[in-house]
Amino acid sequence: MTGETISHYRIIEKLGEGGMGVVYRAEDTRLGREVAIKVLPQHLCGDDEARRRFIQEARAASALDHPNICTIHEIDETGDGNIFMVMTLYDGRIVRELIAEGPLEAARAADIAAGVARGLERAHARGIVHRDIKPANIMVTRDGQVKIMDFGVAKLANAAAITVMGSSIGTAAYMSPEQAGCAPVDHRTDIWSLGVLLYEMLAGKRPFEGDYDQAVIYAIINTEPAPPSTFRKSVPADLDRVVVKAMAKSPAGRYQSAGEMRAALEACASSIAAGKSCGAGGGGTETCASGTAATRAAGGDTQAGAGGARPDGADRRRLPSIAVLPFRDMSPQQDQEYFCEGIAEELLNALVQIEGLRVAARTSSEQFKG
Fold first, then answer.
1. What span, in angstroms and rounded, lies between the C-alpha atoms of 317 and 264?
2. Backbone angles phi, psi at 117, to 5 degrees
3. 3-class secondary structure for the chain?
4. pLDDT of 280
5. Angle at Cα 329 formed by Cα 327 and Cα 332, nearest 5°?
6. Of the residues 47, 65, 91, 132, which is catalytic?
7. CB distance 267 to 282 below 8 Å
8. Segment-wise mean pLDDT, segments of 10 residues, the chain, 370 residues
9. Which pLDDT score is estimated for 156?
10. 113-150 residues labelled b (16+ CB within 10 A) or e (exposed)
11. Does residue 115 contact residue 52 with C-beta atoms inside 8 Å?
């Protein structure tokens, strides 16, 4: 298609292709800018399910205005039935290419995973489950921005099902056990896939491997992989724990939200950058070389905790830490647990935006509940 014009977009060159589309660099002749155009392959234009998935991808991504999610500008169809979507053209590399050059440094892997988690927070808040988080669908731009791409198999809240009953959808190596087993999935399947992605970035290899998809799926459902530090001694124990928790076989054993996992990853990244060790997300009390803190606050029908700090004996600098303790439902009906959890999550999300503040992962303070 190089040299052809679709609508008011002149195709410059082919950038890549996958099962659900061919991506081209193109010029928007009206606005005088370069964009990326994804075109549904010709042989799939007559496939109703393929068209529905293609349209669903555009709808899902375009509904999510977030720095860590690719931007969709429009979707259109040519006179001869070719359907295409127009996206922002990013200058960067997909994570699959980065891993091909070798395992990533722990700090960079944690930072990329945290960026994915931030994007998933927005998607999940809008009722969208990606279902295909993997290295080929994550891009890191030249300025370090992480972008989640390809919502082609996303599950949208209140949308009609587009999959065949009894079949799994996604990429086998990154499927959660429930996804691989064709069971119903929720946002926690993306938590699992992000754990697998983080594992691969740290270890340089996938946690579950096999010569064919069914062998991989068997391994996902029945085996426990060695932690990433088994293959790279430089991987901090904190990140090992994040990976292990994200990849718990039971959804109930994983991080219960992308925000919770993001907070744990950011705590790890902060610790690595400061040359310290800080427990993140493995349960139990979170202890940092710079100290721990907890104070109490109360308001309305709930109780909460937050904190201060003590100086670091190594460099005598103050690096504040804070923990949000679990809120307690003190209403007569005892039916506000979801509200208590929501307040804690909102506080965590706000606190992690503060520069120079270490925020304890929610799982680390759960032991204080009650």
1. 23
2. -60, -40
3. CCCCEECCEEEEEEEEEECCEEEEEEEECCCCEEEEEEECCHHHCCCHHHHHHHHHHHHHHHCCCCCCECCEEEEEECCCCCEEEEEECCCEEEHHHHHHCCCCCHHHHHHHHHHHHHHHHHHHHCCEECCCCCHHHEEEECCCCEEECCCCCCEECCCCCCCCCCCCCCCHHHCCHHHHCCCCCCCHHHHHHHHHHHHHHHHCCCCCCCCCHHHHHHHHHHCCCCCHHHCCCCCCHHHHHHHHHHCCCCHHHCCCCHHHHHHHHHHHHHHHHHCCCECCCCCCCCCECCCCCCEEEEECCEEEEECCCCCCCCCCCCCCEECCECCCCCCCCCCCHHHHHHHHHHHHHHHCCCCCCEECCHHHHHHHCC
4. 44
5. 165
6. 132
7. no
8. 85 80 90 90 70 77 85 83 86 94 95 96 90 92 90 60 47 91 91 97 95 92 93 93 96 95 93 66 37 31 36 48 86 75 75 75 67
9. 59
10. bbbbbbbbbbbbeeebbbbbbbbbbbbbeeeeebbbbb
11. no
Look at residue 162 in the predicted model and tell me its pLDDT.
41
Residue 242 in tokens: 């994040």
Residue 235: the pLDDT is 94
Please count the other Cβ atoms lying within 10 Å of the Cβ belonging to residue 46. Answer: 9
d(CA 277, CA 82): 54
| pLDDT for residue 363 | 57
The whole-number pLDDT of residue 292 equals 30
Paired residues of 165 in beta bridges: none
Q: Is 132 a catalytic residue?
A: yes
Tell me the backbone φ, ψ of residue 230, rounded to 5 degrees. -60, -35
Amino acid at 22: V
Token readout for 244 is 């292990």
Give 336's Cβ-side CA count (13 Å radius): 17
Cα–Cα distance list, 114 to 121, 194, 264, 341, 345 (Å): 10, 9, 9, 21, 16
Side-chain-facing half-sphere of 300: CA atoms under 13 Å: 11
